[in-house]
Amino acid sequence: MPNFSTELLAYGFVWYVAFLFSTTCHEAAHALVAKLGGDETAALGGQVTLNPVPHIQREPWGMVVIPILSFIFTHSMIGWASAPFDAQWERRFPRRAALMALAGPAANYTLMLLATVGLRVGHSLGWLQANPETGQPNLLTVVLFVFFSLNLLLGTFNLLPVPPLDGSAGIMLFMSESRAQRYLDWLRGNSFAMVGLLVGLLVFRYFYGPVENFATNLLLRSHF
Question: How far apart are CA 208 and CA 34, in angstroms?
Fold first, then answer.
């Protein structure tokens, strides 16, 4: 069993709370936009909520077991969640379905921007002072940076246009209805989820670094 310091356990706790809240917001955004667009599938499952319990009940492995195990054995955290939708509704209203798909990443980017505001305001008010003896950042700084980096990662990864990620449905926003129907025939008529996820992970590792550097330089570098 790996050894854990108090600092590492505290850091893991912060990451898990951030993951749980951010993922809940992501899925609640899917469910809310779907409901507004006429599909109440996720809403009837209780997922239009920031209470993580209904989301955990739907995906206990992705939201609890795998994140905790991945932290224990790799000191990093991975996981997943999902919101159900009506496939017939998606076919009738592909652009509404695209908005539903894009709502999840939009929620993550909103949380990232809120963390940016927190970091900037906290820095200007002197709330983010490092420990003078160790040079380590205080807890508020760690929490805000975790929310910034985690939600930038979640939002960007989910925008990749490969199944089962949100970007694969989000691109229908830019298609005509007839083209979206043909695209759905192809997308839903094949089992691309595993291949798409592998391709997404391979691509993501190469381009996320520049994206992260750009966002950090644009939003935070002038203050930190």
Answer: 29
